[in-house]
Inverse folding.
């Protein structure tokens, strides 16, 4: 089971290192698209997440969600989040 | 006397590439490469486990300093084969092409050699493109295959002018962060031998099929190595042929493959970041390269694809301006912002209030990447291939290149006084016809009719075995069914409706053979299907005057349509060369 805070923290750090954006701009409702994340990055992020958390993450997880909040809700619906 | 060692060594990895490698090697040979002599470079092919490995004697006539080796211990990842190749290279500057299915443009090797001279420790990087209408992992799910690609390549006669590869390869693969952003990888790159040694070659820890992220990793390690500088070669490129490669051609599984590659990279390197060091750009851009490349670049990647208004430019006369404006409107280039705003709503359950108050009024600010992408698609006439959005909201879906080409054809007909009427079979909203009629009116060509043939109810369902599976009939593709009243209305709105616009409503099978058309100077076929294309050719080709144009909109895009054309041309012994207009449009001139 993943923990929401850990996922949020990791995603924020990941996006900071990938895009060079300020952590403060990466809010839960900021569209990934506006952060300069394209579809390739989205799949890369799924791969890194899978490795980091040791849980299978679907390749389309980030692609099909527009924001961190939506992604968290999606994980919760799939029963991956405690 | 010992022969002088080469200046450049290029390692090319092959794996089951019987179709692709001959083209790749031709494109690397002195017969095709310009500005570099045969003795200046060597090519070393390392075959990584093909069942029938390529043989050097089969390429003897290329005049290429070529060596082909079978890698003794093949693995799914080509990384070890590459490192083996690096050990064989004799030159001080060594290149690697991790995927032997990539063809080169004619000035590539000379440009890389010169680019390397600009820095003591250069990381010479190249741009890569994918042949065909779009990203191959997507287009192959829409039917793009080797036969389709072969047609595109034949249509541009690439051996004669390799820069035309740019024309059929609108998708640039490694510039996802913009033309002047960091490259995501370099699928062919040259480093000095000392740098290869310092890096220890590729990292064999990358064991994924195809090498996973090993290629990107190599580039990033090279860029982070002290004292190096990236030099990106512009004006040249490498072009990926479809071949069932693990990454580029994984089709629907591509996302999974990319995910696993990223996972492996993250496991090995503990982070993911794009290395964005300062770069130089090197572009010894030849005239031919400049022309082809400018078309590619201008196709929507830049903000102003059309002539920038400099004060010194002589003003075009009004007629020219009218046609330019008309074309922009027919393509809805002036309405792209609205289309992009609407696209952003597709599939959404609820619309955020900010959409109405902000996004809609600031599409360039709020949806910049999508707008840039839409420009590119419209310029290339690629909208019809994108899964997310439907056909454009303009009057034509054929895109800028084919519309410009149509204008050129009509202008030629008028200038050379080729006899006959103009006709389109398959008109949708009528945009291509509107342009033709406007040009006739402008030229005062009172004697020519414009024939507008369509069911005005969409495509017929597939009936022949050749069309099996291609059901674009009204039930499946309602957007393709446009009534005659609507097309007539468009003619009237533009002030172009008169008695010389002749409508032929009904399915081609019923309307064309017995129609009143006597002589045609231009026949434009855009009915998509095998049946529609063949019916139109059989009914009308004999009425095309000598010097007249036959234009096939879907030759590159739909195998069914191409088959009809190929069979018809073969049956009639038509040898007039078929030229590609862009990735899908083709034409020939009747002799
Ligand atoms: C791709 S659209 C044409 C696009 C158009 N030329 C443009 O400029 O955008 C295909 C058109 O062909 C018509 N069509 C295809 N097969 C036909 C047939 N056998 N008989 C009549 N109309 C046909 C369809 O109704 C549709 O309007």
């Amino acid at each position: 089971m993943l923990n929401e805070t850990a996922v949020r923290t990791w995603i924020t750090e990941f996006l900071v290192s990938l895009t060079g954006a300020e952590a403060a701009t990466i809010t839960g409702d900021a569209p990934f698209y506006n952060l300069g994340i394209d579809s390739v990055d989205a799949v890369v992020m799924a791969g890194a997440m899978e490795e980091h958390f040791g849980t299978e993450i679907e390749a389309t997880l980030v692609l099909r969600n527009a924001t961190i909040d939506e992604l968290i809700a999606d994980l919760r619906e799939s029963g991956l989040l405690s | 006397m010992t022969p002088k060692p080469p200046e450049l060594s290029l390692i090319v990895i092959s794996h089951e590439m019987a179709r692709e490698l001959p083209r790749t090697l031709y494109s690397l040979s002195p017969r095709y490469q310009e500005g570099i002599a045969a003795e200046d470079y060597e090519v070393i092919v390392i075959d990584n486990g093909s069942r029938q490995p390529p043989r050097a004697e089969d390429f003897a006539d290329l005049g290429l300093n070529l060596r082909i080796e079978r890698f003794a211990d093949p693995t799914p990842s080509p990384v070890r084969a590459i490192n083996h190749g690096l050990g064989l290279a004799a030159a001080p500057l060594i290149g690697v092409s991790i995927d032997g299915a990539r063809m080169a443009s004619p000035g590539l090797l000379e440009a890389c050699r010169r680019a390397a001279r600009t820095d003591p420790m250069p990381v010479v990087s190249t741009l890569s493109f994918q042949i065909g209408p779009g990203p191959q992992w997507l287009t192959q799910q829409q039917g793009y295959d080797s036969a389709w690609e072969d047609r595109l390549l034949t249509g541009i006669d690439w051996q004669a002018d390799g820069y035309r590869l740019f024309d059929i390869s609108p998708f640039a693969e490694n510039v996802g962060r913009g033309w002047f952003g960091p490259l995501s990888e370099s699928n062919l790159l040259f480093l000095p031998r000392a740098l290869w040694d310092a890096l220890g070659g590729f990292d064999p820890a990358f064991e994924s099929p195809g090498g996973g992220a090993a290629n990107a990793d190599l580039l990033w390690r090279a860029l982070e190595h002290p004292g190096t500088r990236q030099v990106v070669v512009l004006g040249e490129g490498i072009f990926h042929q479809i071949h069932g490669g693990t990454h580029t051609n994984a089709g629907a599984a591509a996302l999974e493959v990319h995910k696993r590659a990223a996972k492996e990279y993250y496991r090995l390197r503990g982070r993911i970041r794009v290395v964005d060091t300062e770069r130089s750009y090197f572009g010894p851009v030849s005239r031919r390269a400049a022309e082809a490349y400018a078309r590619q670049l201008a196709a929507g990647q830049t903000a102003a694809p059309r002539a920038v208004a400099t004060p010194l430019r002589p003003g075009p006369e009004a007629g020219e301006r009218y046609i330019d404006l008309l074309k922009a409107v027919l393509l809805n280039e002036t309405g792209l912002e609205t289309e992009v705003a609407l696209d952003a709503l597709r599939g959404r359950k609820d619309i955020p209030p900010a959409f109405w108050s902000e996004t809609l009024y600031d599409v360039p600010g709020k949806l910049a990447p999508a707008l840039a992408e839409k420009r590119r698609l419209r310029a290339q006439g690629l909208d019809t291939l994108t899964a997310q959005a439907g056909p454009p909201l303009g009057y034509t879906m054929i895109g800028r290149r084919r519309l410009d080409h149509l204008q050129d054809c009509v202008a030629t007909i008028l200038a050379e006084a080729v006899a006959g009427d103009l006709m389109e079979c398959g008109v949708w909203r009528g945009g291509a016809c509107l342009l033709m009629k406007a040009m006739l009116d402008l030229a005062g060509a009172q004697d020519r009719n414009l024939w507008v043939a369509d069911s005005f109810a969409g495509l017929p369902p597939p009936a022949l075995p050749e069309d099996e599976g291609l059901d674009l009939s009204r039930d499946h593709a309602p957007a393709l069914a446009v009534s005659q009243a609507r097309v007539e209305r468009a003619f009237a709105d533009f002030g172009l409706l008169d008695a010389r616009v002749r409508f032929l409503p009904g399915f081609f099978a019923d309307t064309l053979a017995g129609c009143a058309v006597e002589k045609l100077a231009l026949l434009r076929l855009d009915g998509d299907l095998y049946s529609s294309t063949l019916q139109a050719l059989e009914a009308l080709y004999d009425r095309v005057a000598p010097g007249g144009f036959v234009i096939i909109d879907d030759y590159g895009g739909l195998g069914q349509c191409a088959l009809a054309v190929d069979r018809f041309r073969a049956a009639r012994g038509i040898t007039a060369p078929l030229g590609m207009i862009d990735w899908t449009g083709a034409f020939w001139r009747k002799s």
Q: What stands out?
A: Residues B 396-398, 424, 426-428, 431-432, 454-455, 458-460, 480, 507-508, 526-529, 532 surround S-adenosylmethionine (CB under 6 Å). Chain B is about 35% helix and 15% strand. Residues 399-589 of chain B form a domain with the Rossmann fold fold (CATH 3.40.50.150).
